[in-house]
Design goal:
Layout: H1 3-22, H2 41-47, E1 50-51, H3 57-67, H4 72-78, H5 87-90, H6 96-102, E2 106-107, H7 115-141, H8 145-169, H9 176-188, H10 193-208, H11 213-216, H12 219-240, E3 241-242, E4 245-246, H13 249-276, H14 278-292, H15 308-332
Parallel strand pairs: 1-2
Antiparallel strand pairs: 3-4
Length: 333
């Protein structure tokens, strides 16, 4: 064999080797290399999950609404702690078939929020407090302190604990004592309720005011808070209805309060949304108006104005239109 022929064969073999390697499956280590600004899929999925060991009842109510099991959130809370999500089955809170429906919604891992997501979570939790207090005041005005008491209890017994670390980080003056005092006065049917109620509401407003003014007036930020409130309201409304009737007054009232505060927040940014897109503002406002009609009063009607599916659709439309504002802001920036 001539040297020239040998070199030609060697070169051909080398080229075949290169071509063959190019057609192979990439190394398993390749997908792990990602831009620093892209979140891991695991982290993204976790953010949307509910920690069954420490979630407040309003969050657990999303599982209750999904499965249609009355008082499921209380049952989940009563069986804490859980060593794994599967213990919902082994502790006989739900059965395996039900677990399969919610397994992608639950976790026992703590989710650490940062940046804007943390601020949105902070204001949303305080917004839930505001919603509870709204309906509590309505019930007190109707001389129904027994019905009002749970709505004063929820902010201090559930939500305050959940947001307490953030309150401390932001150096917000402690107001848990004020909420407890108000709860005690309501239980005792004291004449001092009005004064303490005003102070309690002011303390929540003060905590919200620790967020920068520019953030609290930003449509992009406020719409995220509104969507969080409406998502929770949707779960509460769904959990309130069974067999075509409103069977859980507290959940109905919770959802009413959250929608009322969401409406109030939107009014504060409506003009800015309209300036950017009149059509988007019109759709959000009209759907918000239709949504509020599902709570004709703080005392639940015998039958719901609309089934949960209608409420869900209205909220999804608001979220869809809100996303246009968020997407527009991302594009311009």
């Amino acid at each position: 064999m001539s040297i020239l022929r040998f070199l030609s064969l060697t070169f051909a073999a080398a080229m075949l080797s290169v071509l063959f390697s190019c057609n192979q499956t990439p190394s398993v280590t390749t997908p792990n290399v990602a831009p620093s600004n892209v979140s891991s899929p695991v982290v993204v999925a976790s953010k949307n999950r509910i920690n069954i060991n420490n979630a407040i009842l309003s969050e657990l109510d999303k599982l209750e609404a999904k499965l249609g099991i009355p008082a499921l959130s209380n049952q989940i809370q009563a069986q804490r702690p859980y060593g794994s999500p599967e213990e919902l089955v082994s502790k006989k809170v739900i059965n395996q078939a039900q677990y399969e429906q919610i397994k992608d919604m639950v976790t026992i891992e703590d989710i650490v929020l940062t940046g804007v997501a943390k601020d949105v979570d902070y204001m949303t939790k305080l917004g839930l407090m505001k919603g509870h207090l709204f309906v509590a005041k309505e019930l007190l005005d109707l001389q129904k302190p027994a019905q009002a008491e749970p709505h004063i209890g929820h902010p201090v017994e559930e939500i305050y604990v959940d947001v307490e670390d953030q309150l401390n980080e932001r150096n917000v003056p402690e107001f848990k004592t004020s909420l407890i005092s108000l709860q005690d006065l309501v239980k005792a049917k004291s004449a001092k309720i009005d004064t303490n109620f005003t102070e309690a509401v002011k303390s929540v407003d003060n905590a919200i005011a620790f967020l920068p003014d520019a953030m609290r007036s930003s449509p992009e930020f406020v719409l995220q808070v509104i969507n969080g409130l409406l998502d929770t309201a949707n779960s509460e409304y769904t959990a309130a209805i069974a067999n075509g009737k409103i069977s859980a007054a507290i959940e109905y009232q919770d959802s009413r309060g959250f929608v009322i505060y969401a409406e109030e927040l939107y009014k504060g940014i409506s003009s800015q949304v309209s300036a950017a897109s009149a059509d988007t503002d019109k759709l959000i406002a009209s759907n918000m108006s239709e949504l509020s009609k599902n709570w004709p009063s703080v005392i639940p009607p015998a039958t719901p104005v609309n089934p949960p599916a209608v409420v869900t659709q209205l909220i999804k439309t608001i979220e869809k239109e809100s996303q246009k504002v968020l997407d527009s802001n991302t594009t311009t920036n």
